[in-house]
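Predict the 3D structure for this chain.
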Amino acid sequence: MSRAAYYKWLNRKPSGRELENQTILEAMKLLHKQVDGIYGYRRLTLTINRKRQKSNQPKVNEKRIYRLMRVGRLKSVIRQKRKNYRKSPAHHIAENVLNREFKAEKPNQKWCTDVTEFKYANGKKAYLSAIIDLYDGSIVSYVLGNSNNNRLVFTTMRQAIRQLKATEKPLIHSDRGYQYTSKGFRYILEEARMTQSMSRVGRCIDNGPIESFWGTLKCEKYYLHRYDSYEALKQAVDDYIHFYNHHRYQKRLSGLSPLEFRTRAA
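Done. Predicted structure below.
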């Protein structure tokens, strides 16, 4: 742009259309505040047009209101459009090596992993990734985060691997989520010389132990309270998993907690 064109634009007088848009936008902002942000562009259009009709002003169409909402950064607080995520291709699919053999003869022989979703505050979401040891049912690693992404799962996996002895190479079983079929996850397992196993399509029971833990966690902790912040939810998850590993006695473990049973085995 030339210097002359820039200063001409800077010193121009706003057109009638621009002035009208500004008036409409101010009315929209006021209305949006009055209804606590529950109106989308369709209902805003209806309400604005009713007011304009009383003062004999022409109606405005939905496209114009929608465009002005974007200019004024106005969003409805309900039924927001979901983000469009590009589906990642499955780079690696493993066989169901575990094959529902959920008993392990020693610690760090068979692991199951998965991610579950929690809601807190006003519809916000958090995601918990965890790994359970099938020997004693203990949670060997977990990470809570705001996004269900590769980093969440990879961090959980690396935390668990750091606890292993040089001779321990667990079988790791998961569903076919995009994190577990990714090249990055496969690289972590190859580096640790671990065997990968995956559930069959549509068979949740193939990953039964971790699914059972999600149910226990949510029934015994999550559903009993309201969480107004991410920090409150995180503290609740930390407290419960510590309780579950150290103090939740189980009949199948001879009346011991998972970590007591593990210690006795060691």
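Strands lie at 110-120, 124-133, 139-145, 171-174, 195-198.
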